[in-house]
Amino acid sequence: MAQGAIGKAPQKSDSLVRLLGVTKMYKQPDNYDIRVLDDINLDIQPGEFIALLGPSGSGKSTLLRIITGLAEPSYGTVLYRGRPIEGANPHAAMVFQSFALYPWLTVQQNVELGLVAKGVDVEVRKQRAIELIDLIGLNGYEDAFPKELSGGMRQRVGFARALAVDPELLCMDEPFSALDFLTAENLRSELLDLWLESRIPTRAILMVTHGIEEAVYMADRIIVLSKNPARVVADLPNLLPFPRNRKSPEFVQMVDQVYKIVTGWDDEEDGQKAVPEAQPAVSGADHGEPNERPRLKPIPYGHISMLSGLLELVQDRGGHDDLYRLGAELFLEVDDLLPVTETAELFNLAEVSEGDLFITKLGQSFVEGDVNDRKSLIRDQLLDIPIFRIIQRVLTTKANHAMNKEFFSDILEEHFSVAEAERQLITAINWGRFADLFHYDTDTEQLYLDEDQTEEKPAPVQQES
Ligand code: ADP
Q: Does pLDDT of 24 surpass 90?
């Protein structure tokens, strides 16, 4: 990790890390700002293993980068041992999902990297790297190159490199999610042993994850972020004793509780919906940002085929089911299931409450209808969503009833990052095509209406966002 400096102006604090009103805005190509993190207040105490959960794209990695000093907040303060951090925090190290090893360096050289940056003497750092390679079970592979290693072995090198600098704060960004099930399980328990037996000098661990079970298995504090923008919607202790048994009723109950929180918050209501024992969402800090304008509400990336399947399944089970159980049965992580349940809610086909999915009357009509009924029902719902009103308005009023995809990308990029705008448009095109609201030509990349579709009246454009 690059050298950084800890600023002066100390403040009395026992916390390792303290975030005060941290807000992060990202500038878009048109100069408008998107608020990704909003008024995050957080204390990390020595001895804590914290799991940070939240939907994809909510800002978990951004928060991790801010805490390690790799990115700066737009507003607010990050204190490390009571002092504002300036630049990369030399007491923190990061383990990445993608391993981030240098392919032209050997295992040993990769592990030594952090020590080179710290100016550690060559003999000392060689010795330290050998000890760590041993600690993480890779002895014999010192001279191997990353391409010769399996995914699990590469991540072991990632851990050894992070641990080489004796970090007080170990940050991990989905460290197990690129590994196969058994390898991930092995590495999790080995890391837990190192931590619980104090065989590493690390004082606190902060792990970004999308796995609720992983969080409950490893962490003793679980923080849940909302999305658009990210706020802390829950901060709860996990007091289950170690070793944790995934099958024990207490473990299952804890997973269920977190599941309810993760599936329970509702950005439309700017807070939570039936969230048990969660801290109330902190109200957004108003920094009077002149360039920030109301955002078009993002649509979830639910696939219609998955939506249909899920609703049929739940309908067959009496019209409601426990989402956690459903996810486990279908081998779906909450991250895979949430976009589909959010889509069901957006289309008024289902409601989620206390971790259960309930099919609405409209949802029943959808399940019982044939494909044409389903298309027409979704079409009605789409016309209530701003981006579809815009698309329909443009296509019906334009003389040739066709428009380049890029035109709508440009509109969306005024509200979202380029990558997010692309994902939004792909989802919108998929939904619109399913509902026969418009057609899309993949060769010309044009959205267009055919004769039947142009007979429909244009939807009035509303000022909502
Ligand atoms: P997560 O880790 O929860 O998946 P991220 O922190 O990676 O979320 O991203 C949060 C949001 O911020 C996303 O919408 C992403 O597109 C946007 N974002 C992240 N980094 C940048 C950047 N450097 N510039 C603009 N937008 C960004």
A: yes
Pocket-forming residues, ligand 1, beta carbon under 6 Å: 26, 36, 54, 56-62, 417, 419-420
Q: Percent of the chain having pLDDT more than 90?
A: 56
Q: How many CA atoms lie within 13 A of 38 on its CB side?
A: 25
Q: What token pair was written down for 399? A: 């003389």
Atom of ligand 1 nearest to the CA of 59: 6
Domain termination residue (choose one: 350, 368, 386)? 368
- Give me the amino acid identity at 448: Y
Domain membership of residue 272 (yes or no) is: no
Distance 24 CA to ligand 1 centre (A): 10
Whole-number pLDDT of residue 27: 80
Ligand 1, closest atom to CA 54? 3
241 or 290: which leads in pLDDT: 241
Instruction: Compute the distance from residue 173 Cα to the ligand 1 centre, in Å.
Output: 13
Assess whether pLDDT exceeds 50 at residue 5: no
Cα–Cα distance for residue pair 393/449, rounded to 1 Å: 11
pTM: 0.72
Measured CA to CA, the distance from residue 314 to residue 431 in angstroms comes to: 22
Question: Which domain CATH number covers 313?
Answer: 1.10.10.10
Q: For the ranges 33-42, 410-419, 433-442, which has the lowest average pLDDT?
A: 410-419
The reply to whether 340 falls in a domain is yes
User: What distance in angstroms lies between residue 62's CA and the mean position of ligand 1's atoms?
Assistant: 6
For residue 427, pLDDT over 70 is answered with: yes
Total structural domains within the chain: 3
| Two structure tokens written together for 457 | 């009246």
Ligand 1 center from residue 57 Cα (angstroms): 6
Tell me the pLDDT tens digit for each residue of 92-148.
999 988 778 889 999 999 999 878 877 889 999 999 999 889 888 888 999 999 999
CA-nearest residue, atom 13 of ligand 1: 57
- Residue-level pLDDT at 291: 59
Q: Which atom of ligand 1 is the closest one to the Cα of 65?
A: 6
Ligand 1 centroid, distance to 142 Cα (angstroms) = 35
Shared domain check, 58 and 145? yes
Enclosing domain of residue 223: 3-263
CA distance 329 to 323: 10
313 and 413 belong to one structural domain: no
Q: What CA–CA distance (Å, rounded) separates 250 from 216?
A: 10
